[in-house]
Amino acid sequence: MKKQDVFDAYVSCIMNTYSRFPIVFTKGKGSFLWDIDGKKYIDLFPGWAVSVLGHCPSSVINGIRYQAARLVHLPNNFYHIQQAKLAKELCLLLPFEAKAFFCNSGAEAVEGALKLARAWGASRGKKKIIAMKNSFHGRTMGALTLTGQSVYQQGFDPLVPAVETVEFNDINALEQAIDEKTCAVALELVQGEGGVNIASEEYVGAVRELCDKKDVLLIFDEVQTGIGRCGQWFCFQNYDVCPDIMTLAKGLGGGVPIGAVVARKHIADVFRPGMHATTFGGSPLVCKASLGVLKEIRKKGLLKRVRRLSDKCVDLFKSWQKRWPDKIKDVRAMGFMFGIELKAECKGIVESSLRKGLLINCTHGKVLRIMPALNIPEKVLFSGLEILEGVLDEAFSVD
Ligand SMILES: *Cc1c(COP(=O)(O)O)cnc(C)c1O
């Protein structure tokens, strides 16, 4: 297919739900991508935080190859080895006794967490769920209701009842919203889509205390922050505060679609056969791929590496802020989750970067978001950032 044929097919046969850049990618390896014209790009936002080990990592690809030749899919009314192994590995990584439910995406993990929380609350007469303003939890109806941004909800009402949103990082707002009917609080420790907003340590500690005091479940949505992204297996380990329920997805499969709901054992056991299910979830193929991700992160010591390189990047971004104090408002980071907040819209910066062969993201209008692969070679990372510095220099000197 020629480039124009691809564009035409999208226009005529694919629903118009995304605005896309006019590039057709045909190949990816590590932190590089190639388009249909053979142009090479450095990818500092691989797969929207999905490709934690970059594109086509051999640790994942070899597992897929192995499993594809043996057993790809199996319904969940039978047992298979890969799901058993993955669940055991995940549970071993957690500092509390837990059980997992495997699904296929972030939104589906959030739905599972909501159902589990409501099922737990049912016997206690608790149904209300509190989420945060400016959050992002996905596009299905339940996850959309939790997503505290009207821009995503507009036109899709009525949403799911008994959900309330309160100000992020504001313990008083939460305290006022929690009542005897509340079963759960859902929180992103770092609001990714919302602009890389970081929950403060005091806040997260206070949320945990409040939830314990009021017998309310605490859900951490780690779909974006989990699996090494924030310099720990799970971002909550940066806070020393544990959730009751956690959602995972994006990085968990290193590129294949997988999500998981993880919950403390006594909560997880509220689910009985028939209460929740998914046809594709936890197939041999995706579980094998995910096992490759976990193994590679452990084997290569990537968590420590992320923490070290994160500091180096922050130093660089802070030096940019010093250089352009009237252009850069703030620099925020947690591991390999970076937000550079500009004082003006950043869409143009992303487009100029693409022209210079660099992929980054812009969220919430003014926040440049960078989420490199955990294993990106240091040289590639800083070559990419050098391109970005050039783009910023150009953009900032014209206006
Ligand atoms: C991306 C994201 C989701 C939704 O995941 P999908 O796989 O797109 O459904 C949910 N929560 C958070 C925190 C996310 O970043």
Describe the fold and architecture:
This protein is an alpha/beta fold and 399 residues long. The protein contains 13 helices and 17 strands. Strand 16 and strand 17 form a beta hairpin. The chain is globular and about 60 Å long. The site of pyridoxal-5'-phosphate has 15 residues, from helix 4. Pyridoxal-5'-phosphate (PLP) binds next to helix 4.
Topology:
Layout lengths: L2 H11 L11 E5 L2 E4 L4 E4 L14 H11 L12 H13 L4 E6 L2 H17 L5 E5 L8 H6 L3 H4 L9 E4 L4 H7 L4 E6 L2 E2 L5 E2 L2 H14 L2 E5 L23 E4 L10 E6 H4 L15 H16 L2 H22 L4 E7 L2 E6 L4 H9 L2 E2 L1 E3 L3 E4 L7 H21 L1
Parallel strand pairs: 3-15, 5-6, 5-7, 7-10, 10-11
Antiparallel strand pairs: 1-2, 2-3, 4-12, 8-9, 11-12, 13-14, 14-17, 16-17
Helix pairs in contact: 2-10, 3-10, 12-13
Bound molecules: pyridoxal-5'-phosphate.
Distance between the termini: 41 Å
Strand percentage lies at: 15-25%
Helix content: 25-40%
Query: How many DSSP helices?
Result: 13
Using the alpha-carbon principal axes, give the shape. globular
Question: Spans of 5+ residues with little confidence (pLDDT < 50)?
Answer: none
Q: Any idea what the radius of gyration is?
A: 21 Å
Oligomer: single chain
SSE class: alpha/beta
**Biggest sheet, spatial arrangement of strands:** 4-12-11-10-7-5-6
Tally of strands = 17
The average pLDDT value, as a whole number, equals 98
Query: Topology as H/E string?
Result: HEEEHHEHEHHEHEEEHEEEHHHEEHEEEH
Major β-sheet annotation: 7 strands, mixed
Bound molecules: pyridoxal-5'-phosphate
